[in-house]
């Protein structure tokens, strides 16, 4: 048996001091989850069900109150270099160009100027932004800014990609374009594990191998569904595929009870 990329075992996260006289919030309740290396998993669930909290635990930013959180078989003790985390509101630095934004994490890691430049231009061109390397964020559309943020997250070449509602602020048309680019980027990088949090079920089914539905707070896993759609995926065509609609409908029935 190979070691999973991610393993949560009986994980609970309780915010507060644990003193029953004070207010404690159980954000994640006795949750177990295993994700093999190279899988693309989407997590959906109502607002406040603990999705961001799970990503924060995996990123080593907070520790579980109970249970264990492992990466490649090792207990997560703190932030790690092999994780790329794109926060729900990760803004670009306005005074850095697109290319300089992408290079941020590489500078911190002490990569030479030449290497940084090569890596960032490669990623920008994979996201069809080669002509905009020297543009400042204010000169880019929202969709382009999101693509730069993706490039910045992936520049360090992480094994595990954590993305928290990365496309939530984009209009429908732009979102479709950015989704297509993101999925081709992942499909051309075998072995990268993705945990993608979204409130958009359609997006989850279009992109992921597996969709996890969480219950309303306290968050637990309600259902775990494999998406039986082969790759490479053409996201703008897939919406009309009967297997896609069927899968989305099946998961929707699980999700809708949690949304009220
Ligand atoms: N630092 C914190 N202190 C207290 N409660 C928190 C804190 N962070 C999150 N919570 C609470 O934990 C629950 C889960 O939050 P979160 O993981 O952000 O949910 P989601 O990302 O699914 O919307 C929410 O009820 C939220 O209010
Ligand atoms: Mg959240």
Write a structural description:
Helix content is 35%, strand content 23%. With 260 residues, the chain is of the alpha/beta class. It has a domain at 1-82 and 194-260: Rossmann fold (3-Layer(aba) Sandwich). The strands form 2 sheets. Strands 6-7-8-3-9-10 form a 6-stranded mixed β-sheet, sandwiched between helices. Helix 2 packs parallel to helix 4 (142-154), helix 4 runs parallel beside helix 5 (172-187) and helix 6 crosses helix 8 (242-259). It binds adenosine-5'-diphosphate and magnesium ion. The site of adenosine-5'-diphosphate (ADP) has 12 residues, from strand 2 and helix 1.
Largest sheet: 6 strands, mixed
Strand content: 15-25%
Summed up, the helix count is 8
Write down the overall geometry: globular
CATH C-level class of the domain at 1-82 and 194-260 is Alpha Beta
Average pLDDT rating: 94
At the fourth CATH level, what is the homologous superfamily of the domain at 1-82 and 194-260? P-loop containing nucleotide triphosphate hydrolases
Q: Biggest sheet: strands side by side, in what order?
A: 6-7-8-3-9-10
- The stretches of 5 or more residues where confidence is low (pLDDT under 50) are none
Which sequence of SSEs, written as H and E, runs from N to C? EEEHEEEHHHEHEHEEHH
Structural class: alpha/beta
CATH-level-2 architecture of the domain at 1-82 and 194-260: 3-Layer(aba) Sandwich
Helix content: 25-40%
Measured between the Cα atoms of the first and last residue, the distance is: 40 Å
Bound compounds, please? adenosine-5'-diphosphate, magnesium ion
Number of strands: 10
The CATH topology assignment of the domain at 1-82 and 194-260 is: Rossmann fold
